Amino acid sequence: MSDKDNDIIVCRCEEITLGEIREWIDRGYGSAGEIKRALRAGMGPCQGRGCQDIIMREISRRLNIPLDQVEAGSVRPPVKPIKIGLLADRGE
Questions:
Q1: Between 32-39 and 52-63, two packed helices, what is the crossing angle to 10 degrees?
Q2: Range of the domain at 78
Q3: How many domains would you assign to the chain?
Q4: Residue 92 lies in a domain
Q5: With helix as H, strand as E and coil as C, how does the chain read?
Q6: Best CA proximity match to 39, nearest among 52, 61, 1, 81
Q7: What is the CATH number of the domain that holds 29?
Q8: What integer pLDDT is reported at residue 60 of this predicted model?
Q9: Is residue 91 part of a domain?
Q10: Could you read off the pLDDT of 35-81 as tens digits, one per residue?
């Protein structure tokens, strides 16, 4: 990928571009979890299902390391968005 790709939206939920992700990788952020904490990439409604793989591949490519050596980061419940009513006691 070239610098002309910097305007591509990687995280649609938080509207984070490939350029922003590259900038933070170049600052030394080398895991999906670090990028998530710095940019909120993966914290939207999809919980990273739409962007985490892309971010990990870009870290791998940018740092020239195998993809299986890129740390994915932690997933916190709920892993999939659910309606609050499913968690609440409705008294039924």
A1: 110
A2: 3-86
A3: 1
A4: no
A5: CCHHHHHCEEECCCCEEHHHHHHHHHCCCCCHHHHHHHHCCCCCCCCCCCCHHHHHHHHHHHHCCCHHHCCCCCCCCCCCCCCHHHCCCCCC
A6: 52
A7: 1.10.10.1100
A8: 97
A9: no
A10: 999 999 988 888 888 899 999 999 999 999 999 999 987 776 666 67
